[in-house]
Amino acid sequence: MKNVKFSTLELATVVKGSNLAGAMARAVESAQASEKYGFERIWLAEHHNMEYIASSATSLLIQHIAAQTDNIRVGSGGIMLPNHAPLVIAEQFGTLETLFPGRVEIGLGRAPGTDQQTAMALRRNNLNTSFYFKDDVLALQQFLSNNNHTAKVRAFPGEGLEIPLWILGSSTDSAYLAAELGLPYAFAAHFAPAMLSNAIDIYRANFKASEQLQEPYVLICANIIPGETNEEAQRLSTSLFNMFCEIITNRRAPLSPPTDEPIYAGIAEIEQAVQSMVSCTFVGDKSTLTTELKTFVDRYQPDEVMATNYIFDNTKRLDAFRIISEIFNDINLSK
């Protein structure tokens, strides 16, 4: 069995008592820690109209992080392609690849990354762009290819760079598309785990080899909250659970310090809603996480697991990268 790779999803989340600049500084620290401990890649996610997430100008933040690291791959998890003209993304990421050759990749999503009203502002009142997602992916691929040199519209920088594309998803629709196009598939189990098993089965069963990828490649994103003890990890995880509660109740706030118990404890409706979003979340000390993540890897056979990090305390947050690295190294050694 081949080793499972491990990587980081960075949301550039503002923590209580800080600001957007502080969130960007924490994102850089995440990238530097990920690189130090052997993570494969770090991705930034596009969100809009969210006061406490600093990654709306995703390509700019990718550039900022790439400039302050040396080797780790940097990319989007994802660029919400219906918000953008494919030519613009080809030029932006062509610029990034020119500046940081061999390190850049583009994860592509269909969702707006925001609410409907903001999506209309982004898409100039044309919400139908999501229906052309496949066409836009193919157009972006063409702009980045060596085969576009005779076209009337070309991307500079971008043309000929063949930057790796990924399809992101949380449903079976994205699985079919990734399989059809022969692209690697990243599943967002960190907030939408319900269709995980079906989606990766569909992707593997229907995969068609392409110039970019000869065999299926599955990345699963999950929440991983390590601590020195199980009790400490459980307490640290309340920042994550409280954040999901705030999303569900539309009461957005900065990432807050841990609480003795989740702020929704005893409210059955919210407890159920949060649990449905975070069922692919791993919390515990190194031993507990090694056992649980090995079981998870054995069940789903991912090529890569991408971890989020929603730990409030910065020292513990950065140390989590070390612990996660040790866990996956142990899992790989046990094969």
From TrEMBL:
Top EC class of this enzyme: oxidoreductase
InterPro entries: Bact_Lucif_Oxidored, CmoO-like, Luciferase-like_dom, Luciferase-like_sf
Luciferase-like domain: residues covered: 18-241
Cell membrane in keyword set: no
Lineage: Bacteria, Pseudomonadati, Bacteroidota, Sphingobacteriia, Sphingobacteriales
Protein name: LLM class flavin-dependent oxidoreductase
Pfam families: Bac_luciferase
Statement: the UniProt record of this protein carries the keyword Kinase: no
Domain of life: Bacteria
GO molecular function: oxidoreductase activity
Keyword entries, A-Z: Oxidoreductase
Similarity annotation: To bacterial alkanal monooxygenase alpha and beta chains.
Enzyme Commission number(s) from the entry: 1.-.-.-
